[in-house]
Structures
1.
Amino acid sequence: MQRHHRLFLAALAATAATAQAAPVRYEIDPAHTYPSFEADHLNGLSVWRGKLNSSAGEITLDKEAGTGTVTVRMDADSLDFGLDAMNQAARGDMLFDTAKYPSITYVGKLVKFVNGAPTAVEGELRLHGVARPVNLALNSFKCMPHPMFKREVCGADALAVIQRDEFGMTAGKDYGFKMDVTLRIQIEAIQAP
């Protein structure tokens, strides 16, 4: 009888630990999330910078287990170089071809946890109709109570370098433009109610 009692208590403790370690879901705050990019102009003459003004997605996070996922969906038509003429040209078939490829998606797993926070993401970027592995370094990742919403909010600063010609975006290559593009994703996500 005592043995059954101990087994019951052990099973109860394991169930409680599992319940506490369940992943938490966070919804990306589009007002505080702006994926951006930096690209070469004329082989080092200057750096062109742009951002995507419309994004959505979610993060799941289990700090105790050291696991999580991230999905960021970006509206390609919301790209913004700060110059209307460049925006229109980049939306055309010369670069993003947003009529044919209206969205950009990044899906990944949060990895390399230190003190309950990930330091990297292993994932895949779908851009211009091409999906390729892209890993992000996390320069920072922090969760805290949101002062207004009274729910937890997590924020991160992510970085990767891709080769845009690997996604079929070769504009300027014949003129010596470098194909490497630095991606930055500043993100904030609020715990789902």
2.
Amino acid sequence: MFFRSSMLMTKSANPFLLNTHELPRRTGEMKEYQLDIESNARIGVPLIAVPEGDVIEVDVRLESVTEGVLLSADIYAVAIGECIRCLDPVEQVVERKIQELYRYEPTNEKGRKKRREEDDVDLDMEDELQMEGDVMNLEIPIIDAIILALPVNPLCSEECLGLCPDCGEKWEKLPEGHAHEVVDARWSGLEKLDFGN
């Protein structure tokens, strides 16, 4: 059974935060959610991205495991950009699957949240995703998945011929043999001279 959750951005809330309080912490327990996350920033590469304010659809399955919560998700978004050859608009559907383990927060012997000392930083732990109480932050895995799915140099089509560098028209719309007369700049001053009688 899916739980529909609209995670629309508010000024105070991060739209990528998911509260998992409904998921029991017993190993093997599962919950599924359908999320609509309103992007709070442009997500992508310089020439193509999911625009700020667009909705990213995420179907999430959470499973309690011994070390934390296992996230499996299908991501759907639409990126907008422009063709590097002809500058026409380009639209690309992003569909990605991700799977990440969110570790439970470390606790002391009494089950209380452990305070992290500054000199107690484990670099391997820094790269791991971690639960914050019942909350998981989906921002890093979703952004990474979208960026990795996008081309650095988007094209409207593989056959795109681009633009004529002289007139800026699309090559595909220009007649065969289209060319511009090239005048050597060194001789251009002679055009102004009148050699008439």
3.
Amino acid sequence: MNFLIENWFLIVAALVSGGMLLYPLLVSGAQGGGLSPAEAVQVVNREKGVLIDVSEPEEYAKGHPVGARNIPFGQIEGHKQLPSNKALPLVLVCPTGARAGRAAGMLRKLGYDKAQVLAGGLKAWREANLPVEKTA
């Protein structure tokens, strides 16, 4: 017990460093992780997944993944472009991935259990050299 009292700073340092190592694992687990661009393409191609861009129309017009449907985050609940088959996988994308993460949570509550997020958003999509289109 005397060792613990005399070396409390070492114990605190060990606990803090351990917490810092575990933090990324806990955060990614809480957000449901996210798909890499390559994994997202596989979901769309192999599992007939639906790519949904939750950006605002102005952002969507500036650039979005080819074939993505635009359903703005604020209009996602009950939107007519959502697939009626809730068993289909959904891949959600936005410029950074933040809105897509919140949208995925909302869609899971609505019964779309296979709603997933493109990790890194449109930026990661572009960095993977995947096709992006603009609308007028």
4.
Amino acid sequence: MAARERNVLGGELEACGTDPVTGFYRDGYCTTGPEDRGSHTVCVVVTTEFLEHQRSVGNDLVTPRPEWRFPGLTPGDRWCVVASRWLEAHQDGAAAPVFLAATHERALEVVPLQLLQSYAADIPDDPSSLL
């Protein structure tokens, strides 16, 4: 499915993360569809600041939730986040770096491309350098 999906740059959507496996559909991609009411379309490298911010606004991304196949995140994990949650974190000064090639084009319905680009990060093999 992801091979036909497009990223915010107009290219083929790349994988966001497989350890842990991310995506609304838990396929490693920030693909979306009618079931994904939150639009889990922004691929980020989570930081401590972002995780703390999300917890403070009622979105606990640290605690594992096996019933949702959610392992709980630690800084450095790559994860598909809800576009409006990422925008909220930006507005509060806590946005995480974005992997544009793995961010679904539908994120642009919520977040302007220029804003995403201002947080763009090539994800190195060791993402701890982004923390």
